[in-house]
Write a structure and sequence with these properties.
Chain lengths: 153, 364
């Protein structure tokens, strides 16, 4: 199945989602509001997206963007789901109950971006020591050991 | 009494297959829970990449999966090519496929050797390392390095195959299937190894998918999925191969899948050697300072450990805005608590080894 066919199928099944569906860099991309994330994830899982390939975040200044890459073994297709949260209130629903694979990924995002996942069974830092302060993948993270490279232009 | 002993295994422990700390709760000799505590090898490669130009990131990707650097090189370069719209000559694609299949053999030798020594059969390591050395000789002839290659570049590969390489490669792949069948009898036919691995650490097909595993770990549980066939990239659609699967999802099946994958890799390399034609190996129009248009992309390859992907975001500057590595070893390792529960402490290392983690990639 290609991204176009997937888009048609998603639109037919969930007309409400259709507006927020687009095709970016060859993959169907669904933009979800943070409060709808959990319900939408459950719907996608019912549709056949049985595999959470990865989850990560991006720092866009005032907002964080969460990026979920989903795959369906049955339909042989993958898609992005993206969700934005405010930097001042970085909270979003945990998807561990939908895809257990989200467990470590959410801990990693919590560790490196400081985004909280409501309902996560064991939200602790994953890669950094427990007493680390700050969240290094935020763009405003300061550490004197980071040496800014010249621009070469 | 739920348990009576807490044991810390690692991080510096030879049988943990890298710098991994396992916090194990025991009831007698039975594992109540085993929690991997990772991050000991976390170097912040994703953060460092934000402070480097696109070309300067390639050597960093070598340090992710250091047993399979070609894969990380390739996945990253594919992401850059997709972002910047860079074309790749066909000869370069064939060379990449051959390098990655050789890498699969080299990496799987690092899975099979320990699978034997974990189960008490130390001699297996000698046989697999002899084969791995031949693979590294081939890499050294091509790019001068035996571990961190920095070979795949956006728009192709850094150097063409040297004189005599094709013959050397053909000689290697002609003897490998026989050696693998011998290894099959030596390791998987061994009564003790079978007793140590059969029925240990069973991962069901449902759990394999739900927990995000891929590669030999998922295929050992019967998940019939391989990116090379099911979401094809490069010239894989022109090459014929089959995807070996396990039935029971135990340590035995997971380890044995590795062995048959090596034989399939030989078939792929033989076809690629027949199909490859002379031509350029690098797109000369690629600038040294790449500034892709703003946007994001995800590129994957089927690495020795599973679905390896690079999610790359550009803001239009000469540096990546964000690079996320979807590492298969990370997701594969996360099922360890599930697999270890209820087994004996002496089985823990076999279970960990059967997941074939490389901590450079787990911790990034």
């Amino acid at each position: 199945m290609n991204a176009e066919e997937l888009k048609d199928r998603l639109c037919a099944q969930y007309p409400d989602l259709c507006e927020s569906l687009s095709i970016e860099s060859g993959r169907a991309t669904l933009v979800v509001a943070a409060q709808d994330l959990h319900a939408c994830a459950a719907d996608l899982k019912d549709m056949g997206f049985d595999f959470l390939e990865m989850l990560t975040a991006l720092d866009w200044g005032d907002e964080f963007e969460l990026v979920y890459l989903l795959r369906s073994h049955e339909m042989a297709v993958s898609m992005f789901a993206k969700c934005r949260v405010l930097r001042d209130a970085p909270r979003v629903a945990s998807l561990v109950d939908v895809w257990p694979a989200a467990n470590w990924h959410e801990r990693e995002v919590f560790d490196l971006f400081g985004i909280s996942f409501d309902g996560h069974p064991d939200l602790r830092r994953l890669l950094l020591p427990e007493d680390w302060s700050g969240h290094p993948l935020r763009k405003d993270y300061e550490d004197e050991r980071i040496v800014r490279r010249p621009d070469y232009i | 009494m739920p348990h009576d002993l807490t044991v810390n295994i690692g991080p510096s422990h030879p049988s943990t297959h890298g710098v991994c700390n396992l916090l194990v709760e025991l009831d007698g000799e039975v594992i109540v829970s085993a929690e991997p505590r990772i991050g000991n090898l976390h170097r912040g490669i994703e953060k460092i990449a934000e402070n480097r130009t696109y070309m300067q990131v390639i050597p960093l990707t070598d340090r992710l999966d250091y047993v399979g650097s070609m894969y990380s090189n390739w996945a990253y370069c594919r992401a850059v090519e997709q972002l910047a719209g860079i074309a790749v000559p066909e000869r370069a694609e064939y060379i990449r496929v051959m390098m990655c299949e050789l890498q699969r053999i080299g990496s799987h030798m690092m899975a099979l050797g320990p699978a034997g020594s974990d189960a008490g059969a130390t001699s297996v390591y000698m046989y697999t390392f002899a084969q791995r050395d031949l693979v590294l000789d081939l890499f050294e002839a091509v790019c001068g390095a035996r571990l961190t290659y920095n070979y795949v570049r956006p728009g192709g590969v850094s150097l063409d195959l040297p004189d005599g390489w094709v013959e050397q490669c053909r000689a290697f792949i002609s003897q490998l299937p026989g050696a693998m069948l011998e290894l099959d009898r030596l390791l998987f036919g061994n009564v003790i190894a079978r007793a140590r691995m059969k029925g240990i650490g069973v991962l069901s097909r449902e759990d394999a998918i739900a927990c995000g595993t891929s590669g030999p770990v998922a295929r050992g549980s019967g998940v019939d999925f391989d990116l090379r066939r099911d979401d094809p990239f490069s010239v894989y659609p022109r090459l014929e191969f089959s995807v070996p699967l396990g039935d029971n999802g135990d340590c035995y099946d997971r380890a044995r899948v590795h062995l048959f994958e090596c034989i399939e890799s030989c078939k792929i390399i033989a076809q690629a050697l027949d199909q490859i034609e002379p031509g350029p190996v690098r797109n000369d129009d690629v600038p040294r300072l790449i500034a892709p248009p703003a946007g994001d992309t995800y590129a994957h390859v089927e690495s020795a450990r599973g679905s390896l992907g690079v999610y790359l975001v550009s803001d239009g500057s000469v540096r990546p805005y964000r690079m996320k590595v979807r590492s298969p070893a990370f997701s594969n390792l996360s099922v360890l608590p599930l697999l270890a529960k209820g087994h004996l402490l002496s089985d823990l290392v076999i279970i960990l080894g059967s997941l074939d983690p490389v901590f450079g990639e787990v911790d990034r």
